[in-house]
Amino acid sequence: MKPAPFDYLAAKSISEAVEALAASGGDGKIIAGGQSLMPMINFRLVKPTILVDINRIGGLDRIEKHDDRLRIGATVRHHMTATDVLVFEHLPILQDAMHHVAHLTVRNRGTFCGSVCHADPAAEMPMMTLLLNGTITAWSVRGERQIAASDFFLGSLVNALEPDEFVTSIEIDTLKPDTGWGFEEFSRRQGDFALACAATTLRIEDGVARSVRFALMGVGETPLRLAAIEEIIDGKTVSESLLDQVSEALNDFLQPNTDLHASADYRRHLAGALARRALRDAWKRADLRKGKTDD
Amino acid sequence: MSHNDHSVELRPKLVGERVKRTEDPRFLTGVGRYVDDMSPAGMLHVALRRSDQPHARIIGIDVGEAFSVPGVVAIYDASDLDKDVKPAIPTSRMPGYYATPIWPLARGKVRYVGEPVVAIVAESRYAAEDALEHINIEYEPLPFAIRQVDAVKDDAPLLHEEAGTNTIIRREFKRGDVDTAFENAPVTVKGRFRMTRKTAVAMENRSYLAEWDQRKQSLTLHTSSGSPGIIRDVLSGCLDLPGTRLRVIAPDVGGSFGAKGSLYSEEMLVCILARKLARPVKYVSDRLEDLSGTSQAFDELIEAELAVTQDGTLIGLRADVIGDVGAYSIYPWTAALETVQVVSFLPGPYRMEHYRGRIRGVLTPKPPTGPYRGVGRPSSTFAMERLIEMAARKIGMDPVEFRRRNLVRAEEFPYRTASGIIWDKSAFQECLQGACDFVDYPNLVRERDAARKAGRWVGIGLASYAELTGIGSRISVAPGMPINTGTETSRIEIDATGAITAAFGLSSHGQGLETTLAQVIVDELGCKLEDIEVKHGDSSLVPMSSGTYASRSAVLGGGAATLAARVVKAKVLRAAAYLMEQSIEDLDIYDGIIASRNSNQTLTLKEVASAVYTQMGRIPRDQREDLTASETYDPYLGTACSSTHLTMVEVDTETYGVRILRYVVAEDCGKIINPMIVDGQVHGAVAQGIGAALLEEIVHDDQGQVVTASLADYLVPVATSVPNIGIVHIEADLPNNVGGFRGMGEGGTIGAPAAVANAVSDALSHLGVSVETLPVTPERIFQMLRDTNTPRSANST
Question: A80 vs chain B: nearest CA distance in angstroms?
């Protein structure tokens, strides 16, 4: 379990990193936390000719708030996200999600952006980016471009980046003070990849749900943002009969994989159960936070 | 020493004390020394090309450009090593058994995915693995039967043609007339229980380093083994080297759980290559190799049936078991170790007049099964304890009361089980009571019932069992195995500085034996703990040792240490009596000081040692004797270690995740040497048993490929999987061996799978399903519930 030979560059700037990536002709890889990449390299599933280390590039290790969005830099570790005061104040759902991300040693090294790029359909950060209308900023020798999260996840472990591009930051929505949220994940052990997971946010206006966001993971080739489910909930009171409707819709709609840990049927069942729990939580929280504003 | 002398009797003893482990400072500060920490000058590394075929003929091996990789020294397949080694043959006296020869590399054909085929030796492991990519092996796939139910059939493809069958183990135990007993039985229950394949996942992977001494033409093997003596003895034959030129050392070893107690191909290989190349050669298994090449466990299909009376008395038990032993019979334990013990222990700690248990052990293209903490009994206890609770439920009796009526009672010991095992006196009933008292069982039942009324799926499960530990020379630990497992030797020496060396052939790979054996010696010899250096894990220390396994080292090692310490103590006192001009009867030694009851005069152990060894003429020539002894202990019989586990679990009504709410173990391990270490053994073993119950399963697909090839797929328990574990120590009548110890390193893995299975079954009982396969995963619960078509109402009707 030793990697094939590769070159290594500790890039000092974005331009140095993108030039090295371009020069590698598509065989280079970016490394920040290495928590997904290193096992793949050690298994020789990935054989990059060069690893471009971005940890020494200044300014990528910050979480900043711009209006209603948080911008998370490429070297921000999970542990930093989990303990960040802006996240605590403006994105409690992300804190909930963080409880399910691997173990402390992994969280100390692994990065938010790296997890999104890895695009594991059962990992929390890709789904959260999709749920929170994320925008991914990528750099290459051609300059900077923005990719909407909805266009980013193409398949299991496949993202929309060109081989010579790398992500410098990701922006996601914060939650408004009157927004309730629910995050429900089930895995075989604490910290494992999800067998299924549901995340949702909503506000209550005039007794009905509004601004509904709803996403699932672990039940498809990519994380799923489900507009059809959002539409079912929008304008309604979250009641048991509405939840029945949601799980029925999910049952018809989802086509999960069967793998070692869960069959497609069980995953579908689980997605329904977790969706109900997440929506109940979100409704309860929205009810408690009703009428709250930024001041 | 007089036993009436209260001043002596009242002195504090170390046996029974929570002495901190003397090993821990080096482990906790990162200065332990494992095989992988050793890098002698000129050392070479080995990487292996392993079979990707379950069963295939090797047609050709093409090394391609492998030699062009910088650092590659040599490449070998089996044909290159024919003259360098004889195979290890795991012989057995069992009729109808076939001993599969064990070679360092696959010869002619491969028999499981992961079997070593080609070895590349290079200056670094990196270079060796780079070169592996150039190796091409051409195979002719052969037919195979990957499932035991298929492999056992008469027309199944043969894995070892020479055997003429895949069924290399057959054994039957019977007593009474079981079929008649069933015909007349008022109540019967039966099940088809499956304990799936597991693997030990020691923190340290298997690691081997062989050094060839060109000058002495001798070989030293450093190995992560639990049985360095056995490895020395077998390699002596394989390599044609006498014991004087072959030394096997197990340095610090990071866990075994049984899996490092057998001979491995890679262990043979590094020895051959070191001798061939006259350079040190190291092989360190990586986790991928560990999960596909280290011996595995269990994998039994148990069809069992229990007959009882309406008032809850056991009448008869019959069982037909197919054990999947993998592709080889493991050395030295053979494929009979795991399989036969399933049926020899199946009747458990209960009175059982009529019994028939049959086992067939069949070869399949998987890694061999071998010793794993608990051996056979995690499977047998799972099946038997499920039947016990099924029978109790059927006659409407509380499962605790049902057990109370059938566990062997104090006045019935020694009790001969239906399979011929002798239970000496052990606290069967008291453990059951102890576990129930600890949790306030009647109240716990009320708690469960209240939770159920609230719609929660909560259940209680128990498991009572006994195991035979500290086994002497009357029977082999592995059925039919000709190697002596009934003795251990301790050599104790006080040197001229007064320091004490206690040497054992046993190895300590997590058991804390450096501490516990020293505690035993302190009490016997009267020295200080810090003056003792316990040496172990080295074949050169004693003439013969079979190592640490089968819950034997406290009993056999502790017994041998006691005997040797007594001899040394007598020598110390004889010397002191002369030096102090006192009668030997008036002397005693405590805390390293020899004192007389008749004078204020004292001598230290150091002073006596100095007088004996270095002060010329201090003791007359005809009275002077070295302060050394070597004693071998053979307990002859074994002793029963017994326990009851009790757990309460909750199954999530929607996700089907299982959470353990309560867990208690009540156990009788005889005299406790160190309660802290016993607690640690129980905690660790219960965690391992919970893994077997809820998480761990080695899966081979229909193509014979292992699909649980990483720790993301082979799930071991993590901290959040393990609850607080209550422990009740019951020290009832001590067993009749030197020291009064019982072995207790394995018990937790025996009780936990059964207890958890029973609790989950209880939690799901209102839904008409129960656990027959472990691990009981959320997926399996989902499937069971779907198959019954029961409405998923939480409330029982």
Answer: 23
